[in-house]
Design goal:
heterodimer, A: mainly alpha, two-stranded antiparallel ribbon, 7 helices, 2 strands, 74% helix, 3% strand, elongated, B: mainly alpha
Chain lengths: 180, 164
């Protein structure tokens, strides 16, 4: 992800590849509109963050139930295919709300976010987790028992564990944006 | 000693100050987020079932039993991480209206759950597998969801009413 440099006074590596993107975003009318909206209202920011947390809960809970079921740790009494058909739309819907509510915060201060290692890493993790979810869903759409067919056990379990770690990592990075 | 004086005394102890000014604070916040996901996720699964919206083909008793360990584990983790964040600025928190509202909503969520278990749960064998539970159960589920969403919102509002 681009070249790295040492931050003055610290030994933390900084990802700089996305700094120009942040600067460009800051000059767009969309960013100006976001800043104006957040400045003019005292409740828009906390409301936006509340929706972000509720969507985060929905995404992580729906993904966790499905992936823990794939790992064989919960809900073994229910068939996987129908469970996935119920949970995956929730995961995607929640992701859409997360991107929307998150965009408002990023557009408010694009320079700050695109300069933050934690934010860039977070987005990378979200992208990987979303890509896995797409693979997972295409399997289920082809065949409800796709991930339970002989020979796919390791791919299913490995993917489920990786996805849980990716989403968890995104949450951790998200929380640390404010501190790093 | 008033509540505010007590809070002030707690927040001035050296260990409370250690938490407030170090990497421990974001770590506690992160733990709090994961705990919140477990509590709210598990509660919402049961609440939506009680309302009759989702998992309609699953036994209410069975679903509740599966959700319970996640609810309590998450709740204990949320209370411990929340309490440790609280002590560093205890005085600010107890006088913060959003924090007070959050505690009130948690108490209401608790009362709602207690009432549900004392009264409505007694008849659960009669509607355990029914896709649409009785009105009292649906109301309890809807109230629970509303209270917990309120807890999240009030929690988020704390940071915006600081020093208000």
């Amino acid at each position: 992800m681009g070249h790295e440099e040492r931050r003055p006074g610290g030994d933390v590596m900084t990802i700089t590849a996305f700094v120009p993107l942040g600067q460009w975003l800051g000059s767009t009318p969309l960013s100006q509109a976001a800043r104006a909206a957040l400045r003019s209202s005292s409740w828009l920011a906390p409301l936006d963050e509340t929706l972000h947390i509720l969507a985060l809960t929905t995404l992580f809970a729906s993904a966790a139930i499905l992936h823990l079921r794939m790992l064989g740790w919960v809900g073994q009494d229910r068939p996987l295919g129908p469970l996935a058909r119920r949970l995956l739309p929730l995961t995607w819907g929640a992701l859409a709300v997360l991107l929307l509510t998150g965009s408002l915060l990023v557009l408010n201060r694009p320079g700050r976010y695109f300069r933050s290692d934690m934010f860039v890493i977070k987005m990378g993790l979200v992208l990987l987790a979303a890509a896995w979810t797409l693979v997972l869903q295409s399997g289920f759409m082809r065949d409800g028992a796709f991930w339970e067919r002989p020979g796919r056990g390791w791919a299913a379990k490995g993917g489920a564990l990786a996805a849980l770690l990716l989403w968890s990592g995104a949450i951790v990075c998200g929380r640390w944006i404010a501190y790093a | 000693m008033t509540l505010v004086e007590m809070a002030s005394a707690i927040s001035q102890t050296s260990w409370a100050q250690d938490i407030a000014g170090s990497w421990l604070f974001p770590l506690l916040e992160t733990v709090h987020v994961f705990a919140l996901v477990a509590v709210l996720g598990a509660i919402a699964v049961v609440d939506w079932r009680l309302i009759g919206f989702s998992s309609r083909d699953v036994s209410v008793v069975r679903l509740s039993r599966q959700a319970l360990p996640w609810t309590w584990a998450g709740f204990v983790l949320a209370v411990v991480s929340g309490a440790l964040m609280f002590v560093g600025q205890a005085e600010e928190y107890v006088t913060n209206p959003a924090f007070q509202l959050k505690l009130l909503l948690m108490a209401l969520a608790g009362l709602n759950m207690a009432a549900f278990h004392v009264f409505t749960w007694k008849s659960v064998p009669a509607w355990d597998t029914r896709s649409a539970p009785p009105m009292a159960a649906r109301a309890a589920g809807a109230l629970s969801l509303a209270f917990w969403i309120g807890v999240v919102a009030a929690g988020r509002w704390i940071a915006f009413t600081h020093g208000a």
